[in-house]
C-alpha cells in the first residue's frame, strides 16, 4: 500500500466547480416560478361521474369558488410555494366552513351522512400538490429541459470530470487521508448523538401533525425507543463511558455535516412536503411523459410525480457514483461485478419495468422488492390489487412475492449469503455502495454500536411481523381492531416511522454522519431476516489467513457494517456475522490478501467458533494449530 498525493488535476477542479454550480441552480430553482390559480383548476379535482355524488361535488365546488373570491385566491400571483400553500389553505378552510354552515341551515341531503357531505381535511393534503403543480408558471415551468441540463446534466458532467481522471491513477486502495481530514473525518459520539436526537425528535414532532394530532402512536414509539436505549445502556453499563470513537474529539467532518443536512432536508420535502418541490418535478416531467407516451401509444399523459423524480435522481446518482466505485475498486473483479449488478437491477427492475407497467395500464410493481422491506405487500389494498388485476400478472406477482419470502430468500442465503440481495440486487444497498461509498469508513466499530444494532434491527423485524400479522388478521376476518388496537393505526405508524422516517430521512440522510449503511445495519427488517439465515444456516463466510495479517486495520476501517474484521484476522477466525452484507471491500482493501469471501460446504459450525493459530518454531517451522 503506497501513500499518494491528494492533489487534484485541473479537470477535477472544473468538475467540482460544475457540480457546485449545478447544486446551486438545483436549490435556487425552487424559488423561480410563480403560482396563479383559476376557478376551473381549483374545482376540477372534485368533478365526479358518479351521479349520486354530483350534488355534493357541486356544493363543494361552489363553496371553493366563493371562498376563493373572498380570499382573493383567483386574483393574486404568489411568488413562492409557501405563499401559495397559505392562500390555498385559507381558501379551503373558508370553503369547509361555508359547507358546514350550509349543512346546518339546510340539513343533510336525504340518505347521506355528515362525513359524506362535509369537506374533509384530508382533501386539502391530497389536492395541495396538484393545485400548486397546475398553478405554476415561470422559467422552470416554461423551460424544463433547460433546467434539466443545468442541474442533472451539469451535475453528472461535473461528477464524471472529477471521477474519470482517477482511472489514470494506479489501481488499488491508497492512503488518501480521508480518515484524517477535518473535512471528511467522522463526528465524535457526542455530535453524532446530537444530530440523531434532533432528527428523531423532529420526525416524532412532525408525527403529531402527520397523524392528525393523534399522539398515541408517536408517544408509544418514543417510549419503546427510550426503553430499548435504556436497556442497551444498562446491559452495556456504558453511562459515562466513551465508545471507541471513529474520530478524534471536536466538531469535524464539515462536508459530512453539510451533505447530511442537505440530504435530510431533501427527504423531509420528498415525503411530507412535496408541494414545495414542484419545480424539481416539473423539470423531469418531460422524461416521464416521454416514457409513458412511448409505451402506452397515447399522445398525452404521464406527468411526473415526486416519486418519478426520486426514482430518476436515484438512478442518475447511482450511475455516476457507480463509475466512481468502479474506478476506485477496479483492482478487484468482484467489486466491478457487484456494482454493475446493482446498477442493472436498479435501472431495469426498480425504475424502467415499473414505469412500463404503468404505461401499459398495469399496477406499479418492483419485482425485486421483498416483504418485510416491502412492508405494504400484504395490505388489503395491495392484495385486492393483485387479485383484481386483469389477466394473470396480479396473481403471478402475489405468488412471486410469497415464494421469494418463503423459499427464495432462505435458499439463496444458504448458498450465497445475504450478499446476493444486499450487495447485488437491493436498491437501498445499491445507493449505499455507490453514493454512500465516500462515507463507509464512518460506521461505528464499537461493541456498543453492535449491541444497539442487534436490538434495533430485530425490534424493527418484530414490529413488521406484528403489523403484518394484524393486517392479515383484519383482511381475513373483516375486523379492523385487535386487542383494542386499530390495524390502520399501526400500519400508518409503521409506514411513517419506519418506511419514511427511518429508511429515508435517517437511513440516507445520515450517510455522511454515521456511515453509508445506517438503514441496512440498524433498520432494515429484511436484512434482519437474511442475517438470521446467514448466521445460522449459510455456507457463506469470510475466511482468513491470519498468519499474513499485519494488523494495518484497513479491513475494519472500510467495513461499512461496523465489523471489526481485523480482530477476526488477528485471531485467525473466520468472519460469520449476521450483519455482513458480503460487499467484499474488506478483502479488496487488504494489502496482504488475508481475507476471502467463500461459500464453502463443510464444517461451518466448527469454523465459526474455532480459532486457528499460527505457531512458529525452529524445529517445526510454521504450523497451523487448532
Ligand atoms: S465484513 Fe467485509 S464483506 Fe462483510 S460487510 Fe464488512 S467489509 Fe463488507
Ligand atoms: S486482514 Fe488485511 S486489512 Fe485487515 S488488518 Fe490484517 S492485513 Fe490489514
Supply the helix-strand structural class: mainly alpha
Number of helices: 27
Strand numbers in spatial order across the main sheet: 1-2
Principal-axis shape? globular
Terminal Cα span: 31 Å
- How big a fraction of the residues is strand? under 5%
Number of strands: 8
Bound molecules: iron/sulfur cluster
- Overall mean pLDDT score? 84
Report the major sheet: 2 strands, antiparallel
Number of domains: 3
Task: Determine Rg (CA atoms, Å).
Answer: 27 Å
Poorly predicted regions:
1-5, 241-249, 607-611
**Helix content range:** 55-70%
3D architecture notes:
One of its GO terms (molecular function) is 4 iron, 4 sulfur cluster binding. The chain crosses the membrane at residues 12-32, 146-164, 189-209, 215-234, 254-273, 307-327, 339-360, 393-413, 455-473, 493-513. It comes from Neolewinella agarilytica. Keywords: 4Fe-4S, Electron transport, Iron, Iron-sulfur, Membrane, Metal-binding, Transmembrane, Transmembrane helix, Transport. Helix 8 packs parallel to helix 13 and helix 15 (380-388) packs across helix 16. The chain contains 27 helices and eight strands. Residues 1-5, 241-249 and 607-611 have low confidence and may be disordered. It has 626 residues and is mainly α. Strands 1-2 form a two-stranded antiparallel ribbon. Bound molecules: iron/sulfur cluster (SF4) (2 copies). Residues 542, 558-561, 563, 565, 575, 580-586 line the site of one iron/sulfur cluster (SF4).
